[in-house]
Amino acid sequence: MIVSRDRVTLKMGAGGHAMRRLIGEVFLERLAGPEMLAGDIGLAALDDGAAVRIGDQWLVTTTDSHVVHPIFFPGGDIGRLAVAGTVNDLAMMGATEPVMLTLAVVIEEGFARADLERIAESIRIACAEAGVRIMTGDTKVMGKGELDGIILNTAGVALTSRVIPDRGLQVGDRILVTGTMGDHGLAVLAARGNLSLEVELRSDVAPINGLVRAALAVAGDGITAMKDPTRGGLASALHEMADKARVGILLEERAVPIRPDVRAVGELLGIDPLHVANEGKVVMGVRPDRAEAVLAAVRAHPLGREAALVGTCIADSPRRVVLDTGFGRRLLIEPDGEPLPRIC
Amino acid sequence: MIVSRDRVTLKMGAGGHAMRRLIGEVFLERLAGPEMLAGDIGLAALDDGAAVRIGDQWLVTTTDSHVVHPIFFPGGDIGRLAVAGTVNDLAMMGATEPVMLTLAVVIEEGFARADLERIAESIRIACAEAGVRIMTGDTKVMGKGELDGIILNTAGVALTSRVIPDRGLQVGDRILVTGTMGDHGLAVLAARGNLSLEVELRSDVAPINGLVRAALAVAGDGITAMKDPTRGGLASALHEMADKARVGILLEERAVPIRPDVRAVGELLGIDPLHVANEGKVVMGVRPDRAEAVLAAVRAHPLGREAALVGTCIADSPRRVVLDTGFGRRLLIEPDGEPLPRIC
Questions:
Q1: C-beta atoms of B109 and A10 within 8 A
Q2: In this predicted complex, what is the ipTM?
Q3: What predicted TM-score, i.e. pTM, was given to this entire model?
């Protein structure tokens, strides 16, 4: 791996602070301007998407490229990932009813047409689950050897009357996760190698806008921030939320739901499930008086049965995440990024 | 080049009918549904973007991935191309004032940071020219050898009170091109090889929403269809417009502006400038009574000085393009696609 500051490294695409530094120095420096209207969310916010005031609504947009390897893995594939990733980013901003998605495909010459059809079918199913339509697209082909297989890009557009920025945490808020952590990242890693595992890990990749809608319906304005713990996992998401809101987060390690087989494979690979991507989960900040009601609503949703309250926002240790292990407390280190590339 | 129908070929990404067939069979088959509201423009329209009715306006979106090689070429680079491509696709639907763009970057490990900064700077300048802002983005890194350099994806969102679909041509409409044809494609091809040319061809890549705005201002509803002649060039654009509107197009070959050096390099390479991409030009259908006024308005714009009326929509030869060479008439063959890959 190249480590020079003159060259782009894998870590710079891995969702941690190496990536945020690259984006800040190269792109924000040049492209982020003052917000157009008070309250607009633009590039500098580094939120899950952008929000622009249009009349009495917010126009919310987001984009993601998907480079996952392998493209088919237990529980999903690159097509499902692309739809879920974009729908979920919109939902994280409170926009749970997308108007449309765009789909841009870059394919390597010689790619099997049957695989392309399988991906398209998976996109169709994920769109139906999310209640969204692909309304426009683009197709490019690169020469054999110029691209490893296929890349998808999806962008999404939604309208919402209320935007929830990811910087909204306040001291006292409870931290809720909507299910088990680490499933996607470790499933993809397990699918990649010849690990001879006795268990088959499955990705959690799913559009969770319906779950978020259910949570918002009972929360009123009690959900103060949301983030999907994708690249860099729960650890990155919590660090980013704490940093932006200038609060500390006390995370109760033993309250974080992790599947035993995910934990086992993580130990085998030396990878902490808190540091790898999820693709069908949400981290929410919830006002304490609404926490139990939101938890009940999330648990009542098929994608939220294992939801748990896992932490609290604190005034101490601002911008840090403190891990309560049950035996003591230590700082959770912010990862540089996902430990291995091309997870999503 | 692999030709099997079981594998994706370069031609399937080249903007011609091989591409439209792939998109139709793999994606439209599964993803295109009935339009949500009468007049909405979705995937099946294969227009430059999508349009959805929102209150008394249209929400227009478009997406494009950019894989051009080389990434820097005379007259532009991949960053300028990405901004112009998306701004222009919105403008082709009548939406000349974009609300925002998204920017997703996929980078090969080891890519020079100085090149990334040069691209970001070029994006900044092109955005300023177009009067648009990048409001959200995404960064991914692939391993060394997994991607040839860098891919950009831009999506754009705009609101407009009137949408101009690309299927609107009517018999009698004049065909206007806003400048010389073939500049971008041949400049990129010339930059690629060791051609030892005495001339340096320059790409025409530019956001042309300002020019379209000027044309619309004088046209009233006299502009019946627009398309930017990108992949596959003027030949593909005219075929698509004729096909969708079920009219014939009579193209006066000698009226089509082509730079002498572009023509010369095209002859050297055996490539017809009518078949290669432009990135700062528009093909317009204009009602005959508005043709001279629109032509004057376009010519008054710095990017439209060499605009010309080059053809007429006819009732004969529906869905075909007839080339009047000055010596006789023949059918202009619809190209399979751009003759060489990675032009845009």
A1: yes
A2: 0.95
A3: 0.95
